[in-house]
C-alpha cells in the first residue's frame, strides 16, 4: 500500500514522503515530530487523494488497522514463545537465541530498539512478586508504565486485579503485549499515552520494570514516582541494580523481594544475576 505523508509541524519542518509502503511506516513513525502524541505540533496528512490534515493521534486512528496487522505479523515472525525466565507460568513471545533477529545488525531488523522483545530482569522480578502474592493484587487498579512485552500487566491480570492498563510509548510494545496477553488468556487495556508527570487518576498501583537505565530519565522518573507515592499510590520498582537506582534513591525504598535470574537472562544482561522488587516510600 502506498502512502502520502506530510509533516506539518509549525517548527518549520516540511518533510513530505510519497509512496511509503506500510512496512516503511514503522520507520516513518520515528520521525521526530511523530513522537509525543496528539499534543505535539506535528500534523500528518493521510492517504494519497484524500489527504486530510490530522493530528498525530488521529493519524494513528486513520491508519491503524493496516499498520497494526503488519506489526502483529512482524512480531510473530521475529519472536518465539519463551518460558525461560522467572515466571515460567507465563508464555511470552520474545526475541530469543533461535530468532533471526537475535544478534542481527540493526538495519536488518524491522524494528527500532525492540525493548519489548526482551523480558528485562526488573520486569521479571515484579511479575514474579505479583504471581506469588495474588490476594494482595486482586483488588488493585494497576498501571504498568513502560510495559515492554507486557509481562507485569499480564501477571496482574492473571491474578485477577480489578483493572490493568499496560502503557508504553512504543506502539510495537503494545502490540506485543496484546499478543502475549492473548497467549496467556487474559485481557489488559493498553495505552500509548506518556503518563510521566500525570497524576495517574484511576490507578492505585504503579509498576515500573527496569526503567532506571539512564540517569537523566531516572531523575525525571524518580521525581514523578515520589509525587505519586506522596499522593498515596503504591509504586513498585523492579530493578537488577542499574546505575539510575542510586544509593540516595534506594534510601527512600524498601526491598520487598529478591530473585536469582534465569541463566538466559544473565547472559542477556551481562553482569546481573539478581533482580529485586522495591516499594517507594513517602
Ligand atoms: C527496558 S524496557 C522494560 C520493559 C518491561 N518493563 C520489562 O521490564 O520487561 C523499558 C520500556 O519503557 C518504555 N518507555 C520508555 N519511556 C517511556 C515513557 N515515558 N512512558 C512509557 N514507556 C516508556 C520503552 O519503550 C520500553 O518498552
UniProtKB/TrEMBL annotation:
It comes from the Eukaryota. Pfam families: PrmA. One of its GO terms (molecular function) is protein-lysine N-methyltransferase activity. Gene3D superfamilies: Vaccinia Virus protein VP39. Keywords: Methyltransferase, Transferase. GO terms for cellular component: mitochondrial matrix. One of its GO terms (biological process) is methylation. InterPro entries: Ribosomal_L11_MeTrfase_PrmA, SAM-dependent_MTases_sf. Belongs to the methyltransferase superfamily. ETFBKMT family. PANTHER family: ELECTRON TRANSFER FLAVOPROTEIN BETA SUBUNIT LYSINE METHYLTRANSFERASE. This is ETFB lysine methyltransferase. It comes from Plutella xylostella.
Amino acid at each position: 500500500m502506498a502512502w502520502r505523508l506530510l509533516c506539518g509541524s509549525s517548527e518549520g519542518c516540511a518533510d513530505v514522503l510519497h509512496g511509503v509502503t506500510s512496512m516503511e511506516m514503522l520507520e516513518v513513525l520515528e520521525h521526530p515530530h511523530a513522537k509525543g502524541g496528539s499534543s505535539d505540533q506535528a500534523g500528518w496528512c493521510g492517504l494519497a487523494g484524500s489527504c486530510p490534515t490530522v493530528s498525530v493521534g488521529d493519524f494513528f486512528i486513520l491508519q491503524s488497522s493496516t499498520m497494526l496487522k503488519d506489526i502483529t505479523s512482524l512480531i510473530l515472525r521475529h519472536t518465539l514463545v519463551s518460558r525461560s525466565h522467572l515466571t515460567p507460568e507465563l508464555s511470552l513471545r520474545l526475541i530469543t537465541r533461535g530468532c533471526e533477529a537475535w544478534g542481527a545488525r540493526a538495519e536488518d531488523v524491522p524494528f527500532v530498539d525492540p525493548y519489548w522483545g526482551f523480558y528485562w530482569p526488573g520486569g521479571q522480578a515484579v511479575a514474579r512478586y505479583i504471581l506469588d502474592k495474588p490476594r494482595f493484587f486482586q483488588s488493585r487498579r494497576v498501571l504498568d508504565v513502560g510495559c515492554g512485552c507486557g509481562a507485569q500487566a499480564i501477571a496482574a491480570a492473571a491474578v485477577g486485579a480489578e483493572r490493568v492498563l499496560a502503557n508504553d510509548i512504543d506502539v510495537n510494545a503494545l502490540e506485543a503485549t496484546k499478543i502475549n496477553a492473548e497467549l496467556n488468556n487474559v485481557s489488559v487495556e493498553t495505552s500509548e499515552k506518556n503518563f510521566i508527570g500525570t497524576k495517574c487518576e484511576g490507578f492505585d498501583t504503579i509498576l515500573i520494570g527496569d526503567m532506571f537505565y539512564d540517569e537523566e530519565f531516572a531523575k525525571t522518573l524518580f521525581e514523578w514516582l515520589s509525587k505519586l507515592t506522596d499522593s498515596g499510590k503504591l509504586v513498585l520498582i523492579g530493578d537488577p541494580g542499574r546505575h539510575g537506582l542510586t544509593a540516595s534513591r534506594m534510601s527512600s525504598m524498601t526491598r520487598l523481594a529478591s530473585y536469582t535470574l534465569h541463566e538466559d537472562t544473565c547472559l542477556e544482561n551481562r553482569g546481573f544475576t539478581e533482580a529485586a522488587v522495591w516499594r517507594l516510600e513517602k
